[in-house]
Amino acid sequence: MESKSSSSNFIRNIIMEDLEAGRVKEVVTRFPPEPNGYLHIGHAKSICLNFELADEFKGRTNLRFDDTNPVKEDVEYVESIKKDVQWLGFDWDGLFFASDYFGKMYEKALLLIRKGLAYVDDQSADEIRASRGTLTEPGKPSPYRDRTPEENLDLFERMKKGEFANGEKVLRAKIDMSSPNVNLRDPVIYRIVHAHHHNTGDAWCIYPMYAFAHPLEDAIEGVTHSICTLEFEDQRPFYDWVIANCETEAKPHQYEFNRLNLTNTVMSKRKLKQLVEEKVVDGWDDPRMPTISGLRRKGYTPEAIRAFCREIGVAKSYGVVDERMLEHFIREDLKLKAPRTMAVLRPLKVVITNYPEGQVEWLEAENNSENEELGSRQIPFSREIYIEQDDFMEVPPPKYFRLFPGNEVRLKHAYFIKCEEVIKNEAGEVVELRCTYDPETKSGTGFTGRKVKGTIHWVEATQAVPAEFRLYEPLIRDEDENEENETSFLERINPNSLETLQGFVEPNMKEAAAQDKFQFFRHGYFNVDPKDSEPGRPVFGRIVSLKSSFEVGKA
Ligand code: ATP
Ligand code: MG
Q: Does the keyword DNA damage apply (predicted)?
C-alpha cells in the first residue's frame, strides 16, 4: 500500500504510546457499520483509519455489522458494504454481526440486574424522556427504580418470552439520575421490539440499545481502540461504565474523531436513502451520489479515495472539506493511467474540400504524452470530420484562436485546416463548415513553415462511434450563507445536476469496457458507465474536468 500519511492523526500517537507502555500487545480495530444503507465517502474515512492503523502496527481489523435494530436493516446493505470495503482495498480479519452476540449481551444484562445495576421500568418512552431532566436540572427517579433484583430478573425474563407489547417495559441501567452527563441518567439498555431480524429471525423480541451493545461487541472481539465519530464523545462515560461493570475480559477504549463533511453534498444514510426512494437519483450508485458505489460508478479509484482520506487527516475539530479536494486526487491518480483520446460532445460537421473523396489515412496518436508506456494508437482521417461546436465562432471575440472564417488551426494529431465557408440552415444556425487542409502540416513530420495559435480536437466522421456523454454537477447545493431560514436539503437539489449529450468518440473506443477510464482532450476524465453502456454504444460519464481553481495545501 501507499506510503503513510504525513497528516495529523492523534489516534496513531495514542496507539504508539499504548504499545510502548505495554498496555496493548496487539492493536485490534473494527469498522462497525449499521446495515441500514450504502456506505458513503464519510465511511471511507473511518474505514481507511481503522484498517490502515491496524495495518501499520501489524494488528487486526474486523468488519462488524452493528445490526441491533431489526426494523431498518437489510441483507442488501450487508452485501453492498462488504463489496465496498473490499473494493477500497481492505481485507477484514473477522466478519461479525452484533446480532451473533445477543446471547452474550443478554447474559451481561442479567449480570447487571443481579448486581443491582439494572432495573425494569414500566414507564412509557414519553414518561422516561420527561423525567430525564435537563442540562441544568437533575432527572427524577422512576417509581420502579427500587425493584429488587429478583423482581427484575423475573420481569426481564418475561420480556424476553414475549409477554409484553412493544414499549410496555424497558430495562434501564441504574446509574445516577442527577449526573451532569444526561447519558448516565439511567439509560435504557434493552427494549421490546416484536420484529423479524435479518439475521436472528424471530429468536428475540428484546433488543439491546446501541450504547449498551457497542462496548460489549468491542469487548467480545478484543478490540483495543474503538474509534468513532465525535457525536459519541458524551457517550464515552457510559461506554466506560459498561466495560467497568460487565466484567468483560478485554477492556476496550473509545476514541472520537471528527466526521468528514464535504461541500455541496449530504452525508447521512437517512438523507441518501430519501434521494433513492424519492427517485431523485437512479439508485444508491448514481454517479452523483457521495456513496462509495456512486463514486465507483462515476469512475473514482480506490487509490484516489485512500489518498484523499490520508490527506484530510484525523482531528477533533469540526470542519467541511472542499469537494474539489476529492476531485484533485482522482485527477492525480488518472493523470498517468488514463489514455488521452478525442471525443466530440457537441458535434459540428466539417468537410475538408481539398481532401480526396473516399480516401482514409491512419494517423499515429500517442496515448498519453506524459506516460510513454501507454503507447500509441491509429486513428483514421478523411474528408469528413466532427469538431466541437464551440471550437467555431462566426464572429470571434478578441483572443479567440480556434476556428472562424479565414482562420487556420491545428487538428490534434493531424493537419492544419482553414475555414473557408460556413453553411447554415434555414433558421440561420451553423450546420457545417467547409475547410481546406494543408498536406505539408501533417503532425509528426516536423513541419515548421508557419505557426497557428489554436489546436482543436476532432473525430473522423465515417467511422466515429456514437456515444452518450453525461456531465455531472453537484446534486445538492450548499446553503446560501445569507439565507435567513435553514433550507431542507430537498429544496437545495440542483436541477442541472445531470446533462446528457450525444456525440462521437474514436472508432477504437467501440470496444471500451465498463469502468474503462479516459481523458478526453479538453473535456476531462470520463468513465465508461457500467450500467448503461452497451457494446458498440458506450456511455461515458464525466468523472472530473481537467482543471480546477483549487490547490491542495493552499485552501
Ligand atoms: P449515517 O448518519 O450516515 O448513517 P452513521 O454514523 O449512522 O452514519 P454507521 O453505519 O453507524 O453510520 O457508521 C459506521 C462507522 O462510520 C461509524 O464508526 C461512524 O462513526 C463512521 N462514520 C459515519 N459517517 C462518517 C463520516 N461522515 N465521517 C467519518 N466517519 C463516519
Ligand atoms: Mg446510524
A: no
Ligand nearest to the CA of 43: 1
Decide if 2 is inside a domain: no
Q: Are residues 233 and 303 in the same domain?
A: no
Count Cβ atoms within 10 A of the Cβ of residue 371 and give its class: 0-12 exposed, 13-18 middle, 19 or more buried. middle
- Total domain count for the chain? 3
**Nine-digit cell string for 460:** 473522423
* Cell numbers given for 311: 490527506
* Ligand 2 center–CA 34 separation, angstroms: 6
Please tell me whether residues 154 and 240 are part of one structural domain: yes
pLDDT of amino acid 338: 98
Q: Which residues of the chain have pLDDT under 50?
A: 1-5, 555
Residue 269 bears catalytic tag: yes
Q: What is the CATH number of the domain that holds 293?
A: 2.40.240.10
* Ligand 1 site, CB within 6 A: 32-34, 42-43, 45-46, 228-229, 259-260, 267-269
Q: What is the pLDDT of residues 299-355, one digit of tens each?
A: 999 999 999 999 999 999 888 999 999 999 999 999 999 999 999 999 999 999 999
The per-residue pLDDT for 485 is: 67
**What count of other Cβ atoms lies within 10 Å of the Cβ of residue 145?**
14
Report how far residue 257's alpha carbon sits from residue 233's, in angstroms, rounded to the nearest whole number: 9
3-state secondary structure of 286: coil
> CA angle 351-353-359, nearest 5°?
85
Distances (CA, A) of 481 to 245, 478, 484: 47, 9, 8
Q: What are the strands, taking DSSP E only, across 193-346? A: 206-208, 225-229, 253-257, 340-341, 343-344
C-alpha 29 to ligand 1 mean position (Å): 15
Residue 552: the pLDDT is 60
163 located within any domain? yes
Half-sphere exposure of 285 (CA within 13 A, CB side): 16
C-alpha cell at 537: 454504444
pLDDT at residue 553, rounded to an integer: 56
CATH number, domain with residue 99 = 3.40.50.620
Residues β-bridged to residue 502: 468
On the 0-12 / 13-18 / 19+ scale of CB atoms within 10 A, 311 is: middle
Q: pLDDT digit string (tens) for 477-488?
A: 988 766 666 778
- C-alpha grid cell, residue 67: 445490526
Beta bridge partners of 301: none
Report yes or no on 5 lying in a domain: no
User: Could you list the residue range(s) of the whole structural domain that residue 393 is in?
Assistant: 348-450
The minimum-distance atom of ligand 1 relative to the CA of 34 is: 10
- Is 445 inside a domain boundary? yes
